[in-house]
Amino acid sequence: MDDYKKISPDMWENLDKSQKDSEKVSRKSLTYWQDAARRLKQNKVAVVSLIVILMVVLMAIFVPLFWPIQYSNQVLDFSNIPPNLEVYEVTDGNYIYITKAYKAIEVSKDGELLQMSEIKKDDQNNRMYIYEFDGKELIVDYSLYLQAKKEYLALEKKAKKDPSINLEEAQFNLDNAKKVEIRFDGKEILPTKTIRNKTYVFGTDYLGRDMFIRVVYGGRISLIVGFVAAFLNFIIGVLYGGISGYFGGRVDNIMMRIVDIIGSIPTLLYVILLMVIMQPGLGTIIVALSITHWLGMARIVRGQVLSLKEQEFVLAAKTLGASTKRIMLKHLIPNIMGPVMVSVTMQVPQAIFTEAFLSFVGLGISAPKASWGALCNDALAGLFTYPYQLFYPALAISITILAFNLFGDGLRDALDPKQRK
Amino acid sequence: MGRYILKRIFSSVITIWFIMTLTFILMKSIPGDPFVSERAMTPQVKAAVYAKYGLDKPEFEQYLTYMTNFLKGDFGVSFNRIGLTTQDIIKGGFPYSLKIGGWASLFIIVVGIFLGIIAALRQNKVSDRTVMFISTLGATIPSFVFATGYLYFFSKKLGWAPSFGVGSWKHFVGPVICIGMFSLSYVTRLTRTSVLDVLQQDYIRTARAKGLSEFVVIGKHALRNALIPVVTYIGPMIAGIVTGSFVIEKVFGIAGIGSLFTTSILGRDYTLIMGITVFFGIFLVTAVLIVDIVYVLIDPRIKYD
Fold it and tell me: Is the pLDDT assigned to residue A4 strictly greater than 70?
């Protein structure tokens, strides 16, 4: 019983205060958001997506501020110039590019567009444009294509009687036939080299507007639509879902039946109807998307609030006399932010997607403004001749939506409480 | 179960009524009326025109006429093109859209389920990752990008596919693939997740323990349950195909109902737009209703509430 007396008193001496925690094994406890951020950082795909999103956003904000060309500037002489130029060297160091409309454009050695050459003679009988360089004639002979077309049309007539003729192949051959012959000083010349267009890095559209700045500017519009619509959906969804879930019972029942009915209406049809009825424009698109896309958010919020409101901390807050508004804003909503944030992230690309769809159908932003969808729509008519006009906006839209979706996936994984370690 | 089906039918009817009413309200909320921008009309002519279209009656009466006309199958007339009715548009364009939509659905279901199973059985292997990567692209790239890309490569560059119109089967390959891309990706992912989920169930282990071949285990025991979630997606899939048709038919130059709809939108042909909207609304709600009923019939575990 008296064993403790065997321990010598000097062993009971107090340690220095600084050594108090020396035996404790611990790490800093992480809050929910810190933990999620840590897991998000480990997800390489999500990080790369976030970087892509940030880059797209920053470019959309800042590039138009210092880019020398305005998005609405038209240079009709330089219409439909591709980003890669097949140039002909006519005289030493003097390059020309022949457009698809058989006009000659003088190009500097490293790819800057100088000016459109003046046509010396427009020989319509022989289908050729004649220019003059250094006192010698440059002939752009575009009669070849018309010849091929004539042959094709003759074949088409024959094919009506003789089904064995393969028209599709003939059509294909026609499309890929040599369309133009360039003769300088009597001799045929061939393209010397292909150079990057330095003046317009993405080329120009049918009005000679710079595609690069239009894609960047279109990004601005598309991103504004995406973010604002997602934000409005967030506000409406959280309020509606929050009220429905918090009050429960009959209120909840009625509010959710309304959601069910609206939800079973094909939303896109109604977005289209609203766009038809209201004046087309940025505001209209945002309103149309906001009043039709908040349902998912409201359902998520309601579900979360229903389960959270039974927990002790809400009871505690009620006991302390907190008002309904305070319980909602300070206690419930902060606790449901995880799933809500994921949903908001997914709303952004969806809104961009829908806007692109509407613009592509012709219901979106009107000229000279442009969104990515509108740019794609403009380019559709010239797809086979000027594919680059469709390529860049299509690429921009695909990359952005992909990045948002991958980031949203990453965010969902990171915020999933089941994965918390 | 019968009660559940009745309830679903009832709520579908309510929804259709709601769609029709909403469309009517929207139609009435357009400033002015169809004849306000026409050349100046004498009061007599105006009164005659209004009387012909029933616009002189009180709004509620107009609403009743509108509803009864729909019930009789009269979806309204175009007011841009004389003599053209919504029924003409539907009769002219719907067969093409139905053909594309039908083949697209088949394509989505067969290929989507197949790829989903492959991905699930080879989880985290190269084939799984490839399928998942492609399906991510499929779900994120807008269909008009797919469609234009398809046209550019297969018609322009390679000359394999005709670029517009309808004719031989070759005309339909592009539209069917492009219209189905989004839903295909979704079905693939859904199948993969649900097969993975089912494969962890105890009865699969039991089936394997009995010494059944892997083919029977997967094909007979796993798939039956794994495919139930896929059935629920068929309703939204039909909606996706319908809206997809707006874009795809425009790109491929097919005079289906989708492209006729977009043409009437661009022409601001209000009555036609409203008529087709209601038609689409009814079509989609009915399609979802049928899918829901089929779902109840094949899955005995469903809760009827």
Answer: no
A166-195 residue pLDDT tens: 666 776 676 666 777 777 777 777 777 777
- Residue A302 · residue A252 · CB < 8 Å: yes
Residue predicted with more confidence, A144 or B291: B291
Tell me the mean pLDDT in the region A115-125: 74
Q: How far is A396 from chain B (nearest CA, A)?
A: 10
Tell me the ipTM for this assembly.
0.78
Q: What is the rounded average pLDDT of the residues A302-315? A: 86
Residue ranges per domain, chain B? Answer: 1-203+226-291
Q: Tell me the CA distances in angstroms from B10 to A265, A278, A316, B293, one per residue in order.
A: 15, 33, 43, 13
Half-sphere exposure of B49 (CA within 13 A, CB side): 13
Check if B164 contacts A (Cβ < 8 Å).
no
Interchain pair A361, B288: CB under 8 A: no
CATH number of B1-203+226-291: 1.10.3720
pLDDT category at A420 given cuts 50, 70, 90 is low
pLDDT band at B248, cuts 50/70/90? confident
Alpha-carbon span A123 to A129, nearest angstrom: 6
Q: Do A272 and B265 count as a contact with CB atoms less than 8 A apart?
A: yes
Q: What is the pLDDT of residues B81-128, one digit of tens each?
A: 667 777 887 888 888 888 888 888 889 989 999 999 888 888 888 888
- Other CB atoms within 10 Å distance of the CB of residue A347: 26
d(CA A320, CA B3): 46
Note whether B11 contacts A390, CB cutoff 8 Å: no
Total-model pTM:
0.80
- Structure token pair of residue B128: 């799984």
Tell whether B145 is within 8 A of chain A (Cβ): yes
Q: Which residue of B has its CA nearest to A387?
A: B152
Q: Give the model confidence (pLDDT) of A348-388 as tens digits.
A: 888 888 888 888 887 777 767 788 888 888 888 777 778 88
Find out whether A335 and A273 touch, Cβ atoms under 8 Å: no
Q: Which residues on adjacent β-strands are paired with residue A87?
A: A97, A193
pLDDT at B176: 86
> Is pLDDT at B80 greater than 70 in this prediction?
no
For residue B280, list chain A residues with Cβ-Cβ distance below 8 A. 266, 269
Residue A376 with chain B: CB contacts under 8 Å:
144-145, 148
pLDDT computed for residue A249 by the predictor: 83
Cα-based distances in Å from B96 to B92, B93, B104, B246, B249 = 8, 6, 12, 12, 9
CB atoms within 10 A of CB A39: 19
Exposed/middle/buried for residue A177 (C-beta within 10 Å: 0-12, 13-18, 19+): middle
B-chain residues within 8 Å CB-CB of A260? Answer: 11
Residues whose CB is less than 8 angstroms from the CB of residue B136 and which lie 6 or more positions away in sequence, other chains included = A402, A405, A406, B185
Dihedrals φ, ψ of B81, to 5°?
A: -120, 120
**Could you tell me which residues come within 8 angstroms of residue B102 by beta carbon, excluding any fewer than 6 positions away?**
none
Over residues A362-371, the pLDDT tens digits come to: 777 776 778 8
Tokens of B46: 């105006």
Distance from CA of B208 to the nearest CA of A (A): 30
- Cross-sheet strand order for the sheet of A181-184: A121-123, A128-133, A136-141, A181-184, A187-189
